[in-house]
Write a structure and sequence with these properties.
Elements: E1 11-14, E2 20-24, E3 39-41, E4 43-48, H1 69-80, H2 85-102, E5 104-111, H3 127-139, E6 142-149, H4 171-184, E7 191-193, E8 196-197, H5 205-218, E9 224-228, H6 232-242, H7 246-253, E10 260-264, H8 270-278, E11 282-285, H9 287-292, H10 300-305, E12 309-312, H11 322-337, H12 351-366, E13 382-385, H13 398-406, E14 413-418, E15 421-424, H14 432-447
Parallel strand pairs: 4-5, 5-6, 6-7, 6-8, 9-10, 10-11, 11-12
Antiparallel strand pairs: 1-2, 3-13, 13-14, 14-15
Helix pairs in contact: 2-3, 2-14, 4-5, 12-13
Length: 448
Protein backbone atom coordinates (compact mmCIF):
# COMPACT_ATOMS: atom_id res chain seq x y z
CA UNK A 1 0.00 0.00 0.00
CA UNK A 2 1.80 3.10 -1.27
CA UNK A 3 0.58 6.65 -0.56
CA UNK A 4 -1.54 6.89 -3.74
CA UNK A 5 -1.76 3.36 -5.10
CA UNK A 6 -1.12 -0.31 -4.53
CA UNK A 7 1.88 -1.96 -6.19
CA UNK A 8 3.47 -5.40 -6.46
CA UNK A 9 7.05 -6.56 -5.96
CA UNK A 10 7.97 -3.42 -4.06
CA UNK A 11 11.49 -3.13 -2.70
CA UNK A 12 11.53 -1.22 0.62
CA UNK A 13 15.03 -0.22 1.71
CA UNK A 14 15.43 0.77 5.36
CA UNK A 15 18.29 2.79 6.78
CA UNK A 16 20.15 2.21 10.05
CA UNK A 17 18.07 4.90 11.79
CA UNK A 18 14.81 3.00 11.14
CA UNK A 19 13.55 5.27 8.37
CA UNK A 20 12.62 4.17 4.88
CA UNK A 21 15.37 5.17 2.44
CA UNK A 22 13.66 4.21 -0.80
CA UNK A 23 10.55 2.51 -2.18
CA UNK A 24 10.76 0.97 -5.64
CA UNK A 25 7.93 -1.02 -7.29
CA UNK A 26 8.41 -3.82 -9.82
CA UNK A 27 11.84 -4.92 -8.62
CA UNK A 28 13.02 -8.54 -8.93
CA UNK A 29 13.17 -9.98 -5.43
CA UNK A 30 16.83 -10.99 -5.40
CA UNK A 31 18.12 -11.45 -1.86
CA UNK A 32 15.60 -9.08 -0.23
CA UNK A 33 13.44 -10.51 2.54
CA UNK A 34 9.99 -11.62 1.38
CA UNK A 35 7.36 -9.98 3.58
CA UNK A 36 5.00 -12.89 3.04
CA UNK A 37 1.72 -11.02 2.62
CA UNK A 38 0.15 -7.64 1.87
CA UNK A 39 2.12 -4.81 3.49
CA UNK A 40 0.41 -1.70 4.86
CA UNK A 41 1.51 1.17 7.14
CA UNK A 42 1.02 0.50 10.84
CA UNK A 43 -1.40 2.58 12.90
CA UNK A 44 -0.60 5.22 15.55
CA UNK A 45 -2.68 5.20 18.74
CA UNK A 46 -3.09 8.88 19.62
CA UNK A 47 -4.73 8.60 23.05
CA UNK A 48 -3.87 6.20 25.85
CA UNK A 49 -4.34 6.03 29.61
CA UNK A 50 -2.39 2.79 29.98
CA UNK A 51 -3.26 2.02 33.61
CA UNK A 52 -6.96 1.84 32.72
CA UNK A 53 -6.27 -1.34 30.73
CA UNK A 54 -6.23 -3.24 34.04
CA UNK A 55 -9.69 -2.00 35.09
CA UNK A 56 -11.47 -2.88 31.85
CA UNK A 57 -14.66 -4.71 32.86
CA UNK A 58 -14.63 -3.54 36.48
CA UNK A 59 -17.14 -0.74 35.91
CA UNK A 60 -19.74 -2.84 34.09
CA UNK A 61 -22.02 -3.22 37.12
CA UNK A 62 -24.98 -0.92 37.61
CA UNK A 63 -24.44 1.59 40.39
CA UNK A 64 -27.46 3.79 39.74
CA UNK A 65 -30.07 4.29 37.01
CA UNK A 66 -28.06 7.36 35.93
CA UNK A 67 -24.67 5.67 35.43
CA UNK A 68 -22.45 7.79 33.19
CA UNK A 69 -18.86 8.88 32.67
CA UNK A 70 -19.05 10.61 36.04
CA UNK A 71 -19.97 7.47 37.97
CA UNK A 72 -17.40 5.44 35.97
CA UNK A 73 -14.81 8.00 37.06
CA UNK A 74 -15.46 7.17 40.72
CA UNK A 75 -14.65 3.51 40.02
CA UNK A 76 -11.46 4.63 38.28
CA UNK A 77 -10.44 6.74 41.27
CA UNK A 78 -10.84 3.78 43.62
CA UNK A 79 -8.85 1.51 41.31
CA UNK A 80 -5.85 3.78 40.90
CA UNK A 81 -5.51 4.47 44.63
CA UNK A 82 -3.05 1.58 45.05
CA UNK A 83 -1.14 1.71 41.77
CA UNK A 84 2.64 1.83 42.19
CA UNK A 85 5.25 2.51 39.48
CA UNK A 86 5.99 -1.20 39.11
CA UNK A 87 2.27 -1.88 38.59
CA UNK A 88 2.08 0.78 35.89
CA UNK A 89 5.14 -0.70 34.20
CA UNK A 90 3.58 -4.19 34.22
CA UNK A 91 0.22 -2.93 32.92
CA UNK A 92 1.74 -0.72 30.22
CA UNK A 93 4.01 -3.54 29.05
CA UNK A 94 1.03 -5.87 28.61
CA UNK A 95 -1.02 -3.21 26.87
CA UNK A 96 1.74 -2.22 24.48
CA UNK A 97 2.34 -5.86 23.47
CA UNK A 98 -1.40 -6.20 22.78
CA UNK A 99 -1.32 -3.01 20.73
CA UNK A 100 1.63 -4.24 18.69
CA UNK A 101 -0.02 -7.58 17.92
CA UNK A 102 -3.12 -5.75 16.70
CA UNK A 103 -1.29 -3.29 14.45
CA UNK A 104 -0.49 -0.21 16.52
CA UNK A 105 3.22 0.66 16.52
CA UNK A 106 3.28 4.06 18.25
CA UNK A 107 1.30 5.44 21.16
CA UNK A 108 0.58 8.87 22.66
CA UNK A 109 0.51 8.25 26.40
CA UNK A 110 -1.68 10.97 28.00
CA UNK A 111 -0.34 10.52 31.51
CA UNK A 112 -1.76 12.14 34.64
CA UNK A 113 -0.96 9.68 37.46
CA UNK A 114 2.09 11.53 38.79
CA UNK A 115 2.19 11.25 42.60
CA UNK A 116 2.20 8.52 45.24
CA UNK A 117 -1.10 7.42 46.88
CA UNK A 118 -0.75 10.15 49.53
CA UNK A 119 -0.35 12.81 46.85
CA UNK A 120 3.39 13.27 47.40
CA UNK A 121 5.72 13.62 44.41
CA UNK A 122 8.10 10.71 43.95
CA UNK A 123 11.78 11.41 44.60
CA UNK A 124 12.15 11.44 40.83
CA UNK A 125 9.25 13.63 39.65
CA UNK A 126 9.19 11.64 36.39
CA UNK A 127 9.13 8.16 37.96
CA UNK A 128 5.62 7.26 36.80
CA UNK A 129 6.28 8.73 33.36
CA UNK A 130 9.52 6.82 32.97
CA UNK A 131 7.74 3.57 33.94
CA UNK A 132 5.57 3.99 30.84
CA UNK A 133 8.31 5.11 28.46
CA UNK A 134 10.60 2.28 29.55
CA UNK A 135 7.78 -0.24 29.13
CA UNK A 136 7.16 0.98 25.59
CA UNK A 137 10.79 0.82 24.56
CA UNK A 138 11.40 -2.55 26.19
CA UNK A 139 8.62 -4.14 24.13
CA UNK A 140 9.50 -2.23 20.95
CA UNK A 141 6.68 0.33 20.86
CA UNK A 142 7.40 3.92 19.77
CA UNK A 143 5.96 6.45 22.19
CA UNK A 144 5.04 10.10 22.45
CA UNK A 145 4.83 10.79 26.16
CA UNK A 146 2.41 13.55 27.23
CA UNK A 147 2.68 14.40 30.93
CA UNK A 148 -0.55 16.04 32.00
CA UNK A 149 -1.15 19.27 33.85
CA UNK A 150 -3.97 18.65 36.34
CA UNK A 151 -4.53 21.38 38.91
CA UNK A 152 -8.29 21.80 39.55
CA UNK A 153 -11.35 19.61 40.02
CA UNK A 154 -13.62 21.67 37.78
CA UNK A 155 -14.07 25.05 36.12
CA UNK A 156 -13.27 28.18 38.09
CA UNK A 157 -9.99 26.88 39.59
CA UNK A 158 -11.86 24.75 42.14
CA UNK A 159 -9.43 22.81 44.40
CA UNK A 160 -8.77 19.15 43.66
CA UNK A 161 -10.83 16.52 45.46
CA UNK A 162 -9.03 14.04 47.75
CA UNK A 163 -9.36 11.30 45.10
CA UNK A 164 -7.48 13.52 42.63
CA UNK A 165 -4.37 14.30 44.68
CA UNK A 166 -2.31 11.76 42.72
CA UNK A 167 -2.82 13.93 39.63
CA UNK A 168 -1.75 17.27 41.16
CA UNK A 169 0.81 19.16 39.09
CA UNK A 170 1.93 22.69 38.32
CA UNK A 171 3.29 23.84 34.94
CA UNK A 172 6.86 23.68 36.25
CA UNK A 173 6.30 20.05 37.34
CA UNK A 174 5.12 19.04 33.88
CA UNK A 175 8.04 20.82 32.21
CA UNK A 176 10.45 19.09 34.60
CA UNK A 177 9.05 15.73 33.46
CA UNK A 178 9.39 16.79 29.82
CA UNK A 179 13.05 17.67 30.34
CA UNK A 180 13.73 14.48 32.30
CA UNK A 181 12.25 12.16 29.67
CA UNK A 182 13.94 14.05 26.82
CA UNK A 183 17.27 13.77 28.61
CA UNK A 184 17.07 10.04 29.35
CA UNK A 185 15.94 9.15 25.83
CA UNK A 186 17.74 11.86 23.86
CA UNK A 187 19.36 9.30 21.55
CA UNK A 188 16.17 7.31 20.89
CA UNK A 189 14.42 8.31 17.66
CA UNK A 190 11.26 6.51 18.77
CA UNK A 191 10.64 8.60 21.88
CA UNK A 192 8.87 11.94 21.52
CA UNK A 193 7.59 14.22 24.28
CA UNK A 194 4.79 16.79 24.41
CA UNK A 195 2.29 17.97 27.03
CA UNK A 196 -1.37 17.38 27.84
CA UNK A 197 -3.24 20.04 29.77
CA UNK A 198 -5.87 17.61 30.99
CA UNK A 199 -9.00 19.66 30.23
CA UNK A 200 -10.42 23.13 30.72
CA UNK A 201 -12.06 21.97 33.92
CA UNK A 202 -8.66 20.85 35.31
CA UNK A 203 -6.45 23.68 34.00
CA UNK A 204 -7.20 27.39 34.47
CA UNK A 205 -6.40 29.87 31.68
CA UNK A 206 -3.33 31.34 33.48
CA UNK A 207 -1.89 27.85 34.04
CA UNK A 208 -2.54 26.90 30.42
CA UNK A 209 -0.71 30.01 29.25
CA UNK A 210 2.21 29.30 31.57
CA UNK A 211 2.47 25.68 30.42
CA UNK A 212 2.42 26.55 26.71
CA UNK A 213 4.94 29.35 27.19
CA UNK A 214 7.31 27.00 29.00
CA UNK A 215 6.86 24.28 26.40
CA UNK A 216 7.71 26.73 23.63
CA UNK A 217 11.06 27.34 25.33
CA UNK A 218 11.83 23.65 25.83
CA UNK A 219 10.31 22.07 22.69
CA UNK A 220 8.61 24.60 20.40
CA UNK A 221 7.23 22.01 17.97
CA UNK A 222 6.11 19.41 20.53
CA UNK A 223 2.47 18.26 20.37
CA UNK A 224 -0.24 19.52 22.73
CA UNK A 225 -3.20 17.25 23.56
CA UNK A 226 -6.29 18.12 25.62
CA UNK A 227 -9.63 16.49 26.44
CA UNK A 228 -12.48 18.61 25.08
CA UNK A 229 -16.27 18.39 24.96
CA UNK A 230 -16.45 14.69 25.87
CA UNK A 231 -19.72 14.95 27.83
CA UNK A 232 -22.71 17.28 27.77
CA UNK A 233 -22.15 18.16 31.46
CA UNK A 234 -18.68 19.42 30.58
CA UNK A 235 -20.16 21.61 27.83
CA UNK A 236 -22.85 22.98 30.16
CA UNK A 237 -20.36 23.68 32.95
CA UNK A 238 -18.00 25.41 30.54
CA UNK A 239 -20.83 27.61 29.26
CA UNK A 240 -21.74 28.54 32.83
CA UNK A 241 -18.11 29.39 33.59
CA UNK A 242 -17.12 31.28 30.44
CA UNK A 243 -20.12 31.77 28.19
CA UNK A 244 -18.30 29.60 25.63
CA UNK A 245 -18.36 25.91 24.77
CA UNK A 246 -15.05 24.03 25.44
CA UNK A 247 -13.89 23.75 21.83
CA UNK A 248 -15.11 27.28 21.15
CA UNK A 249 -13.11 28.62 24.12
CA UNK A 250 -9.95 26.81 23.00
CA UNK A 251 -10.28 28.07 19.44
CA UNK A 252 -10.71 31.64 20.64
CA UNK A 253 -8.09 31.68 23.40
CA UNK A 254 -5.47 28.95 23.11
CA UNK A 255 -3.94 29.40 19.65
CA UNK A 256 -5.11 25.99 18.46
CA UNK A 257 -3.32 24.96 15.27
CA UNK A 258 -1.95 21.82 13.61
CA UNK A 259 0.25 21.17 16.65
CA UNK A 260 -2.86 20.43 18.72
CA UNK A 261 -4.92 17.30 19.23
CA UNK A 262 -8.36 17.82 20.79
CA UNK A 263 -9.46 14.48 22.19
CA UNK A 264 -13.09 13.35 21.84
CA UNK A 265 -14.83 16.59 20.71
CA UNK A 266 -17.99 14.52 20.97
CA UNK A 267 -20.26 17.51 21.44
CA UNK A 268 -19.39 20.29 18.99
CA UNK A 269 -21.55 22.86 17.26
CA UNK A 270 -21.47 23.21 13.48
CA UNK A 271 -19.32 26.33 13.77
CA UNK A 272 -16.84 24.57 16.06
CA UNK A 273 -16.68 21.61 13.70
CA UNK A 274 -15.84 23.77 10.69
CA UNK A 275 -13.34 25.94 12.55
CA UNK A 276 -11.50 22.99 14.11
CA UNK A 277 -11.10 21.55 10.62
CA UNK A 278 -9.90 24.89 9.25
CA UNK A 279 -7.22 25.12 11.96
CA UNK A 280 -5.81 21.75 10.81
CA UNK A 281 -5.81 20.47 14.38
CA UNK A 282 -6.38 16.74 14.88
CA UNK A 283 -9.55 15.37 16.46
CA UNK A 284 -8.58 12.41 18.63
CA UNK A 285 -11.41 9.91 18.38
CA UNK A 286 -11.77 6.91 20.71
CA UNK A 287 -14.99 5.21 19.58
CA UNK A 288 -14.91 2.14 21.82
CA UNK A 289 -14.29 4.21 24.96
CA UNK A 290 -16.81 6.86 23.92
CA UNK A 291 -19.32 4.07 23.38
CA UNK A 292 -18.45 2.32 26.64
CA UNK A 293 -18.88 5.55 28.62
CA UNK A 294 -22.01 6.68 26.81
CA UNK A 295 -20.34 9.93 25.76
CA UNK A 296 -22.07 10.49 22.45
CA UNK A 297 -21.22 10.43 18.73
CA UNK A 298 -18.63 12.60 16.99
CA UNK A 299 -19.95 14.61 13.97
CA UNK A 300 -17.77 12.71 11.52
CA UNK A 301 -19.64 13.43 8.27
CA UNK A 302 -19.64 17.19 8.78
CA UNK A 303 -16.04 17.18 9.97
CA UNK A 304 -14.80 15.25 6.95
CA UNK A 305 -16.81 17.47 4.62
CA UNK A 306 -14.97 20.45 6.14
CA UNK A 307 -11.60 18.79 5.48
CA UNK A 308 -10.92 17.84 9.09
CA UNK A 309 -8.09 15.61 10.28
CA UNK A 310 -8.60 12.78 12.78
CA UNK A 311 -6.79 9.88 14.37
CA UNK A 312 -7.87 7.07 16.66
CA UNK A 313 -6.97 6.16 20.22
CA UNK A 314 -7.58 3.39 22.71
CA UNK A 315 -8.18 5.71 25.71
CA UNK A 316 -9.47 3.38 28.48
CA UNK A 317 -8.47 0.28 26.45
CA UNK A 318 -11.69 -1.65 26.50
CA UNK A 319 -10.31 -2.52 23.06
CA UNK A 320 -6.70 -2.77 21.91
CA UNK A 321 -7.50 -3.01 18.20
CA UNK A 322 -7.38 -0.26 15.56
CA UNK A 323 -9.78 -2.33 13.46
CA UNK A 324 -12.42 -2.19 16.17
CA UNK A 325 -11.97 1.55 16.68
CA UNK A 326 -12.44 2.25 12.97
CA UNK A 327 -15.36 -0.13 12.64
CA UNK A 328 -17.16 1.50 15.57
CA UNK A 329 -16.39 4.93 14.15
CA UNK A 330 -18.19 4.07 10.91
CA UNK A 331 -21.02 1.99 12.40
CA UNK A 332 -22.23 4.60 14.90
CA UNK A 333 -22.36 7.10 12.03
CA UNK A 334 -24.55 4.68 10.08
CA UNK A 335 -26.89 4.40 13.06
CA UNK A 336 -27.03 8.16 13.44
CA UNK A 337 -27.66 8.90 9.75
CA UNK A 338 -29.53 5.66 8.91
CA UNK A 339 -27.47 5.08 5.78
CA UNK A 340 -24.26 3.29 4.88
CA UNK A 341 -20.66 4.15 3.91
CA UNK A 342 -20.49 7.50 5.71
CA UNK A 343 -16.71 7.94 5.57
CA UNK A 344 -16.48 7.28 1.83
CA UNK A 345 -16.56 9.84 -0.98
CA UNK A 346 -16.67 9.89 -4.76
CA UNK A 347 -12.90 10.36 -4.79
CA UNK A 348 -12.33 7.52 -2.28
CA UNK A 349 -15.26 5.09 -2.39
CA UNK A 350 -13.59 2.48 -0.14
CA UNK A 351 -14.67 3.02 3.48
CA UNK A 352 -11.94 0.81 4.95
CA UNK A 353 -9.17 2.47 2.96
CA UNK A 354 -10.49 5.97 3.68
CA UNK A 355 -10.65 5.34 7.42
CA UNK A 356 -7.23 3.65 7.56
CA UNK A 357 -5.47 6.31 5.48
CA UNK A 358 -7.00 9.28 7.30
CA UNK A 359 -6.33 7.79 10.73
CA UNK A 360 -2.71 7.19 9.68
CA UNK A 361 -2.29 10.80 8.66
CA UNK A 362 -3.97 12.40 11.67
CA UNK A 363 -2.45 10.00 14.17
CA UNK A 364 1.10 10.48 12.91
CA UNK A 365 0.75 14.24 13.08
CA UNK A 366 -0.72 14.09 16.58
CA UNK A 367 2.25 12.04 17.76
CA UNK A 368 4.78 14.39 16.17
CA UNK A 369 6.12 11.38 14.33
CA UNK A 370 6.83 10.85 10.64
CA UNK A 371 4.88 7.66 10.03
CA UNK A 372 1.78 6.40 8.28
CA UNK A 373 3.09 5.91 4.75
CA UNK A 374 5.37 3.51 2.92
CA UNK A 375 7.47 6.30 1.49
CA UNK A 376 11.02 7.60 1.69
CA UNK A 377 11.63 9.51 4.90
CA UNK A 378 8.89 7.84 6.93
CA UNK A 379 9.65 5.58 9.86
CA UNK A 380 9.49 1.96 8.75
CA UNK A 381 6.40 1.01 10.79
CA UNK A 382 4.89 -1.80 8.76
CA UNK A 383 2.18 -4.45 9.08
CA UNK A 384 2.27 -7.65 7.07
CA UNK A 385 -1.21 -9.10 6.80
CA UNK A 386 -1.96 -12.81 6.59
CA UNK A 387 -2.50 -13.18 2.86
CA UNK A 388 -3.63 -16.80 3.34
CA UNK A 389 -6.50 -15.90 5.67
CA UNK A 390 -9.96 -16.64 4.22
CA UNK A 391 -11.05 -13.05 4.89
CA UNK A 392 -8.49 -11.80 2.37
CA UNK A 393 -9.14 -14.42 -0.31
CA UNK A 394 -9.42 -12.75 -3.71
CA UNK A 395 -9.08 -9.22 -2.27
CA UNK A 396 -6.97 -6.66 -4.09
CA UNK A 397 -6.02 -3.03 -3.45
CA UNK A 398 -8.37 -1.10 -1.20
CA UNK A 399 -10.53 -4.21 -0.97
CA UNK A 400 -7.86 -5.57 1.38
CA UNK A 401 -8.52 -2.73 3.81
CA UNK A 402 -12.29 -3.09 3.50
CA UNK A 403 -11.87 -6.74 4.48
CA UNK A 404 -9.44 -5.91 7.28
CA UNK A 405 -11.87 -3.48 8.90
CA UNK A 406 -15.26 -5.02 8.12
CA UNK A 407 -14.96 -8.75 7.33
CA UNK A 408 -14.74 -10.28 10.80
CA UNK A 409 -13.13 -10.22 14.23
CA UNK A 410 -10.09 -12.42 13.68
CA UNK A 411 -6.77 -10.61 13.81
CA UNK A 412 -5.28 -10.49 10.32
CA UNK A 413 -1.91 -9.03 11.34
CA UNK A 414 0.89 -11.52 10.83
CA UNK A 415 4.13 -9.55 11.30
CA UNK A 416 4.81 -6.08 12.75
CA UNK A 417 7.88 -3.89 12.29
CA UNK A 418 8.65 -0.74 14.29
CA UNK A 419 11.33 1.44 12.73
CA UNK A 420 12.39 -1.45 10.53
CA UNK A 421 12.77 -4.02 13.33
CA UNK A 422 10.40 -6.97 13.64
CA UNK A 423 8.65 -6.91 17.03
CA UNK A 424 5.85 -9.37 16.19
CA UNK A 425 6.38 -12.48 14.08
CA UNK A 426 3.55 -14.83 13.15
CA UNK A 427 1.29 -12.98 15.56
CA UNK A 428 3.54 -13.40 18.58
CA UNK A 429 5.77 -11.09 20.59
CA UNK A 430 8.96 -12.72 21.86
CA UNK A 431 8.36 -11.71 25.50
CA UNK A 432 4.58 -11.95 25.65
CA UNK A 433 4.40 -14.87 28.11
CA UNK A 434 6.72 -13.29 30.68
CA UNK A 435 4.96 -9.92 30.33
CA UNK A 436 1.51 -11.49 30.69
CA UNK A 437 2.58 -13.36 33.83
CA UNK A 438 3.86 -10.14 35.41
CA UNK A 439 0.66 -8.32 34.43
CA UNK A 440 -1.57 -11.01 35.94
CA UNK A 441 0.32 -10.90 39.24
CA UNK A 442 -0.11 -7.13 39.43
CA UNK A 443 -3.83 -7.18 38.56
CA UNK A 444 -4.64 -9.96 41.02
CA UNK A 445 -3.01 -7.98 43.82
CA UNK A 446 -4.78 -4.76 42.82
CA UNK A 447 -8.23 -6.33 42.53
CA UNK A 448 -7.80 -8.27 45.78
Amino acid sequence: MLPDEWAREVLIEIGPDGSIESVTPDVPRGDAEDAGGPVIPAMPNLHSHAFQRAMAGLAERMGSPDDSFWTWREVMYRFLARLAPEDCHAIASQLYVEMLRNGYTAVAEFHYLHNDPAGRPYADRAEMSLAHVRAAREVGMAITHLPSLYAHSTFGATPLKPAQIRFATRPEDVLEIVRRVRSEFRDDEDVRVGVSPHSLRAVSPPLLTELLSGLNEVAPTAPVHIHAAEQTKEVDDCLAWSGRRPVEWLLENAGVDERWCLVHCTHMSSDETRELARRRAVAGLCPTTEGNLGDGIFPLADYLAAGGHFGIGGDSHVSQSPVEELRWLEYVQRLRHQRRNIAASDARPSVGATLWRRALDGGGRALGRTMGAIAAGARADLLVLDGDHPNLAGREGDGILDALVFAGNERLVRHVAVSGSWVVRDGRHADEQEIAARYKRAVRRLIA
